Amino acid sequence: MRDPGLPTLDQLRVFAAVIDHGGFAHAARALHRTQSVISYTIANLEEQLNIALLDRSKRKVTLTEAGRALLADARAVAARVDSMRARAKALGAGLEAEVCLVVDIMFPMCRLVALLESFQREHPTVSLRLHTEALGAVAQMVIDGRCQLGISGMPVLLPDSVERQLAGHVMMMPVCAPTHPLAAIDGVVPTAVLREHLQLVVTDRSPLTVGQDFGVLGLRDWRLGDLHSKHALLRGGLGWGSMPEAMIAEDLANGRLVRLRVQDGDALQYPLYTIHRTDDQLGPAGRWLKQQILDLDYSTPHGAY
């Protein structure tokens, strides 16, 4: 038995059209060809592949078992070629092939999902690579050129080659579990009392934040690499710490966490900035994404995670 030949893209499209439109005649009308041309194309395809794709024994042609298996391949090949042509057209028009975005872990996840969905709808040919990091690690990835665009949190010292623009704020609230000793204190919790209890802190290994602490008051602390671990430990009553208001709104409502009234203030505005290198200008898709980040409404916290 000879090896299958190489089918053409047109043959694969005609094969899919016959199935999609319910037969040779309907496919011919849809493709603006004669029925004989459609029949001839399918026959040649079957000859190329050395296998019967359609069962013609009934009034309406149906797929053979082999035809059902190969139809998915035919569709996939045609879709890949269409995607390649669309990307080539976009590149020819100046649209970048890829955008790499790094996001501070404090950025509301629900808003990030909506942002990325909008990006995919607006720029379907542009690949998007996403990273989530804490504190200075966001800026480090932009400085190093590993990402073109970042959503950065607490301000760190940036070189002149990085442009920063304020996008909005996330409200951070000090909380603990209802079983934690701090929860039993009525009224404002003095800073001296807070220092006596284990504080849960999100940290990173970026050299930009070496030796720097943001909002660390406790004489004892646990340094965590991600926000969700901190959330779980807070709910477990193992310490106290500040969390994004939106992320703990449900916990506060159902009593799994309680808000602490602390001497230095009950809430902290955690800033969010867009950052990118000025010597590596954003392309059209990157500029669009940056503007969407700046235009977001950061004033409605609930349901944002």
From TrEMBL:
GO molecular function: DNA-binding transcription factor activity; transcription cis-regulatory region binding
InterPro entries: LysR_HTH_N, LysR_subst-bd, WH-like_DNA-bd_sf, WH_DNA-bd_sf
Domain HTH lysR-type residue range list: 7-64
Keywords attached to this entry: DNA-binding, Transcription, Transcription regulation
Top-level taxon: Bacteria
Similarity comment: family membership: Belongs to the LysR transcriptional regulatory family.
The protein's name in its UniProt record: DNA-binding transcriptional LysR family regulator
